[in-house]
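Lecture 7, part 2: worked example. A protein chain together with S-adenosylmethionine.
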Amino acid sequence: MCNDRIVSRWAMLGSILIVLFVASVSAVHAQEKSADSKVSKQNPPRGLTSYMGRRVALPMSYHGIPWLNRPERVDEEKPIEMLEQLRLQNGMTICDMGSGDGYYTFKMASLVAPKGRVIAVDIQPEMLQALSKRMQEVKVENIDTVLGELWDPKLEASSLDVVLMVDVYHEFSHPVQMLAAIRKALKPDGVIALVEFRAEDPTVPIKPEHKMTKAQAIKEYRANGFKLVREYDKLPQQHLMFFGRDEEWQPKD
Ligand SMILES: C[S@@+](CC[C@H](N)C(=O)[O-])C[C@H]1O[C@@H](n2cnc3c(N)ncnc32)[C@H](O)[C@@H]1O
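Predicted complex, written out as structure tokens:
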């Protein structure tokens, strides 16, 4: 009887020790986890001021919304002709990367309706707020807004048919991380439609760091796992280049 008691006391003590041990291990894990998330929030990947010999431009502020909606844009960019080249169809999922307040988002939303959707990604909440306000005014429902990080557009893997970037890519402070994330988010036959003002043409009235040459764009996209699949050279001031995933590409360590 007495021996039984001693044994059960030892068993109880053992169980208490096991519970304490498990609790302390979980607490250490929880601390490590929260330290990890602090590290990634406090130390995001380093942004670049130049990339592969090109000066990176600063992002255009939301104060420039009136400029994005200037009436002359129709003649300067020929938006309808540009969007025709994207071959959009009802049911597609499209991303307007760096959407601003949605100059192209709304046009694309009607081209993929009623079954398709447009994901509008921007890093400035004010741009997305302006876009959402307009969505309510014009009662368009097939647009989702996503507030991205400079290095992460927060896109779902293998989900996109087309990613349109109009006058945006040259502003990426993290071009490598952004292109890797977009590559992952494209469906196998999905494409990036890259629109940049022509740097080869000195008569295009845009600051040099907001323009790109075709050769520079191809160099940067090749280095990040893309190949040029087609292009359209008839826009008044901009290049329109289509890049697809290069499945033979191997990332360098
Ligand atoms: C010149 S505006 C063009 C807006 C729109 N594409 C248009 O044509 O009206 C460039 C936009 O890209 C956004 N941008 C810059 N870097 C970005 C990034 N890493 N991810 C998402 N958007 C970004 C800026 O906040 C800005 O709204």
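The first strand starts at residue 50 and ends at 51. The two ends are 68 Å apart (CA to CA). Keep this in mind for problem set question 3.
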